[in-house]
Amino acid sequence: MRYFIVDDDTASRRMLKKIINESGLGLVIGEAASGKESLSLVLSTQPDFVLIDLLMPELDGIETIERLRNEGFLGQFIMISQVVNKEMVGEAYEKGVEYFIHKPINRVEVTSILKKTAEQFRLKDSLIQIKQSLAHIVSNEKPYKQRDVKEIVISILNDMGIVGETGSDDIILMIEILMEENEHNGQLPPLKDLYEAVAQKFKDVDVKKESKAIEQRIRRTILTAVNNLASLGSIDYTNPEFEYYAPRYFDFQDMRNRMKQIQEGDQKPSKVKVNIRKFLQVLYLETMDKYYQN
Fold first, then answer.
1. Domain annotation covers residue 285
2. 112 and 213, same domain (yes or no)
3. pTM of the entire structure?
4. Which Gene3D superfamilies does the record cross-reference, listed alphabetically (predicted)?
5. pLDDT, tens digit, for every residue of 9-29?
6. Structural domain of 247
7. Radius of gyration of the CA atoms of the chain, in A
8. Could you give the CA distance from residue 161 to residue 82 in angstroms, rounded to a whole number?
9. Which of 175, 184, 202, 254 is the 20 to 30 Å CA partner of 85?
């Protein structure tokens, strides 16, 4: 991945560059000390990601993003900020910012966020290439093209911000197995059977032990989806991803409770219930619907 850093704080730029280089996350191809200075540099280098400070003199982060978008820049933005302001954060999301790195800068947080964004970037790029390739395939047998199951599931998980999470591969494989068998009429078999079916796809593993590990990975991944959607909803109740996925895949009262905890800045939020069966059932039905639709 190619990164460009925009921050008026020299120490922050130096630290971010060091973390990226030492972690092998990619290459920092440029940096700027202000939004105004960054405009021509970003447009000429066309990085994959711009790490940009929210508060800067002359041109702040949000204004800089807007200028770059108007000039046709298609890369992604990661906001750097020590300010937690609901209105400003909401505006940043509207401009296309997907993630925030908080100041003071923490190596673990930066590494985690950049790994997630890089994975999503690669998957989105793969999806684009798949769609472009399939667009040129003309079938004489079918008046329409069925979408690939993996492509469908990745797209849905990506909307919830959990592509790249540890359990996302398990979920994708599970739905592929269900679609291949095509014998459940849209209803899930016992979860235990599903975990074992996925575990059996791995070589040289203890199926029972791996089944339990799969369950825990999926549980953590679904919990991440809850937190991601609750964060979106707490900032903008009309966010399209929140509006679509929150009431379908989750207990909405639990979602509202998590949103309230986020809005109140609860440092020790209560545990959120994770209904794995409901999540997988809805995902299975939605995948079937998208796969067979004209």
1. yes
2. no
3. 0.52
4. 3.40.50.2300
5. 999 999 999 999 888 888 999
6. 138-292
7. 21
8. 23
9. 254
